[in-house]
Amino acid sequence: MKPLDNLSAAELREEIRRNDQLYRQGKPEISDTEYDLLFQKLRHCEAESGEPVPPDSPTQHVGSDLSADSKDVRHQIPMLSIENVYNIGELRNFGNRVQKILNAAGKKLQETAQNVQAKWIIEIKIDGVAISLIYKNGKLVQGITRGNGIIGSDVTRNLDMIRDIPQTLCYRTPPPLLEIRGEVYMRNSDLVLLNEKQPKDETYKNTRNITTGTIALKDINEEKDPKKCAKIREAHQNRKLHFFAHSVGSYDGLTAANHWNFLKEIESYGISVTPHVQRFDSFDESAEYCESFYASEDNFLSELDFETDGLVLKVDDFAQREQLGATGHHPRWVIAYKVEKYEATAVLREIRVQVGKTGTVTPVAEIEPVEIAGSTVSRASLHNAEEIERKDIRIGDVVVVEKAGKIIPHIVRVEKHLRTKELPVFEFPSACPVCGETLSKDDGGVYIRCNNPECPAQFKERLRYFAGRNAMNIDGLGERLIEQLVDSGLVKRFGDLYRLTKKAIKEKKKAKLLERVGDKLIDNLLQEIEKSKQRDLGKFINALSIRHVGNRTANILAKHFESLDNIRKATEEELSGIDEIGPISARSITEFFRSESAMLDDLVAAIGVQQKPESAAVQPAAHQPLAGQTIVVTGTLERFKRNEIESFIERNGGKVSSSVSAKTSFVVVGSSPGSKLAKAEQLGIRTLSEAELTAILNASAAE
């Protein structure tokens, strides 16, 4: 094929049709991401040409899964595709489009700004096969594939084999008509078991192709040959398909008026719904969740036993969906935020464990180096001991490694059919690999922990966090230097950091306990440590690595109690009464300050009486130009990250809010702002750029 940029619109249409055919045959040549790029390129070419778009163009139709011998059924409501975006800018543009339509509709109906504001649902996007289930008076009467969005294939009998799909709804007086739409999928663990039974040259590569093929099998009731009938039944039994509901089609008698309540309602009927559903009061909050989700290693993706390919954002309210409507290709009230996902197979060389800052002992897979998405990968996350056991991961196995978004690669499954000999089961250590302390498992949890507060590995991780940007921000105190300072005995507790001298460091260097530590590095380090004494209370609390206390909770504590002494004296009941601090966090905070009292006394003494952290917690009113003002931030900023601008505002006396209201003083606006800007303009609230805000504060400080 010619390079994408060199293809004409006609060639792009032909290429898309060819790939559609290969997909229906279960032999795709390109990834979903590459297919989407083809589709986007065709749309761009057609828009740029200025010529009429042929009615048979793929952009005018939903991709079809119809086969030549299918029994055609017309959908009562078109089962359209979902528009895809791949970056946060495109996602925010979508949110702005939705808000403009709702604002226009609201003006016609004379609604208040509050009524126009949409609530949003976020679901994980299951990588399976779209299916529509028709229930009449609680009985399943028909199951239909999406087809081309207008006409689908009747696959009712094949869906009867899926245990997740109830034949009768568990409800005394079910709706007269209910069309539930969702995704049929196969679990990764079942793919592993299925491939173990297959000849090596006939194994299946992914779960979606198997799902597509299984749903398309000939109706078992129409097969007259007993042998073929037995094979079809066996295929269904071996493949063990499942179903998650995620949408509603046509209905009569449904009580829910929004998607959130719809999911709760159908769950009460005995229908399995998409897990890990989130609800947000604004699009900005939804976009921030999407952006942070794939940038974080600490998400639930590795726990899932099925394939996903993004997140789906939906307007919650059904009436607002009606106002938004649809194009010929997709609804305007829903979008898929997708990430480029890449897979490769590699041999697992070793499983080693590492100790985190709160004592959590986590396994890491060392794999034969393999190229994934243009970079060489030699390590993959295993998250916890239960994941190793659940996926039956053993040293020497060929494993499927996946990289999606910014998260580190993780192991999806083991290619057990390639296991040519018996491999030993991995035994998780019973003692800490660093200090030898007996390990224990969290009550009711999956994490295994070293509870020795003096464990050097824990302290190194805590020290690395202590020096981090969201904590004491000690530039130059990196991982290698931390290793040397701790191993040489110079730093055994946080307070030792503030007692470091150039003489002591040079003595350790002379004894060859420190390497590559020159005079300039020493001077810079000591200067950075001195500067860190002026950090505010929120950053100081965050730096302590208290379990269940992150940057936001630390700032809440600092603002509420105003001094370190007050926080240390707080009872569990007092802490639990603070908004956003639950009983688990409250217990963890009180336990920390009780058990770490000596460490804190030492640290405060080392920092110096005149520079105790509490002295920086609340500036005098004269130095708080934002005192009494409520500020909202929207869009992407240039100078600050989101947590940094919020901390900056709070240090200057302001209160940060996540939503715009009549009480908002002003809105700080970055690039690609969301619906908060539109609402601010609607309410006549002042807006400032990032530069204007800092200029005002600088001018105030100079007075």
List keywords for this structure.
703 residues, alpha+beta, Helix Hairpins, 6 domains, seven-stranded antiparallel beta sheet, 26 helices, 22 strands
Q: How would you describe this structure to a colleague?
A:
The protein has 703 residues and is an alpha+beta fold. 37% of the residues lie in helices and 19% in strands. The strands form 5 sheets. Strands 12, 13, 14, 15, 16, 17 and 18 form a 7-stranded antiparallel beta sheet that branches. It has a 5-stranded mixed beta sheet with strand order 2-11-10-3-9. It starts with 8 loop residues before the first helix and ends with a helix. The relative contact order is 0.08.
Concise overview:
The chain is of the alpha+beta class.
CATH fold descriptor of the largest domain:
D-amino Acid Aminotransferase, Chain A, domain 1
Shape: globular
Number of strands: 22
Strand content: 15-25%
How many domains?
A: 6
Helix content: 25-40%
Quaternary structure state of the chains depicted: single chain
Strand count, sense and barrel status of the largest sheet are: 7 strands, antiparallel
CATH superfamily of the largest domain: DNA ligase/mRNA capping enzyme
Helix segment count?
26
CATH architecture name of the largest domain: 2-Layer Sandwich
- What's the CATH first level of the largest domain? Alpha Beta
**pLDDT < 50 stretches:** 614-622
Our measurement of the CA-to-CA distance between the termini, rounded to an integer number of angstroms, reads 67 Å
Structural class: alpha+beta
